[in-house]
Design a protein that fits this description.
The complex is a heterodimer. Chain A is α/β, with parallel strands linked by helices. Chain A has a single domain, classed as Mannitol-specific EII, Chain A. Chain A contains five helices and five strands, in the order H-H-E-E-E-E-E-H-H-H. Chain A is globular. Chain B is of the alpha+beta class. Chain B has four helices and four strands, in the order βαββαβαα. Chain B has helices at 20-31, 51-55, 74-86, 91-94, and strands spanning 4-11, 36-40, 45-47, 64-71. In chain B, strands 1-4-2-3 form a four-stranded antiparallel sheet. In chain B, a hairpin with a 4-residue loop joins strand 2 (36-40) and strand 3. In chain B, helix 1 packs antiparallel against helix 3. The longest helix of chain B has 13 residues, at 74-86. Chain B is globular. Classes of the chains: A alpha/beta, B alpha+beta.
Chain lengths: 158, 98
């Protein structure tokens, strides 16, 4: 699965304002509402579900990256977005480091395979230090979009 | 000299596959041991101590993997990792909603 299969381009944010875990999650979910990927009426319920998942264990997987996610019955296909915090946010990450790169995913409950393949793609690309560094220093959403497109075209599609 | 290499097959039993939370649990357990822990799928060999590596397996429910441990505490490490799979990472305890 490629980034272009699930990342809502219009929801990409290169400078999140929030400085808390919930704040970032809310800001990203709102960007999905603004992009038309999720309904405004589902915002609260989605934010709550993502926070509930975080309570089970942080999705801050290290290297300044977090993958907050949830299943939600309101979506019929996997939707996601990418955001960057230049200051970094305390996400109770596994390695204790602040998080700068966020990949938020909302998936339909009956498609665990798609969720796994999105995680697989994100993880594989993030092993590339250069890719991470460029994402973290992106000046605008268009930079992020281009980096994702580049990863999609050079990576091994699966 | 005393380096042992041991391995066993495991099956991903969780309906959601080897997703972020069990991958985290697996990497945490693997890091407790001195031995190198690797997971082998049909096409990949990855570092069991890295969540990113484990997630790149995208192992769905029913996938068979081989866990290989190499080092002075390989046998104990393999037993600990194998038992996580045998217990389905205690998934049923807190899988609701996720």
């Amino acid at each position: 699965m490629k980034f272009s299969d699930f990342v809502a381009t219009d929801a990409i944010r290169s400078h999140v304002d929030a400085h808390t875990k919930e704040g970032v999650i809310r800001e990203m979910a709102q960007s999905l509402v603004d992009a038309g990927s999720i309904a405004a009426g589902d915002l609260e319920s989605i934010v709550k579900a993502i926070m509930k998942r975080e309570d089970l264990g942080s999705t801050g997987i290290g290297r300044g990256v977090a993958v907050p996610h949830t299943k939600h019955p309101s979506v019929s296909r996997l939707v996601g977005t990418v955001a960057v915090s230049h200051d970094g946010v305390d996400f109770e990450s596994l390695d204790g480091e602040p998080v700068q790169l966020f990949f938020l995913l909302v998936s339909p409950p009956d498609r665990p395979g798609d969720h796994l393949r999105a995680l697989e793609n994100i993880s594989r690309q993030l092993r590339d230090e250069t890719f991470c560094r460029h994402l973290k220093s992106a000046k605008g959403p268009i930079d992020i979009q281009h980096l994702l497109e580049e990863a999609d075209s050079h990576g091994v599609a699966s | 000299m005393s380096e042992q290499v041991v391995s066993r097959e495991v099956v991903v039993g969780m309906p959601q596959g080897l997703h972020a939370r069990p991958a985290d649990q697996l990497a945490r357990e693997a890091r407790k041991w001195q031995s190198r822990i690797e997971l082998l799928s049909d096409s990949q060999r990855v570092d069991g101590k890295s969540i990113l590596d484990v997630l790149t397996l995208a192992a769905e429910a029913g996938t068979r993997l081989v866990v290989e441990a190499t080092g002075p505490d390989a046998r104990e490490a393999l037993e600990a990792i194998g038992s996580l799979f045998d217990r389905n990472f205690n998934e049923q305890e807190w899988n609701e909603g996720q």
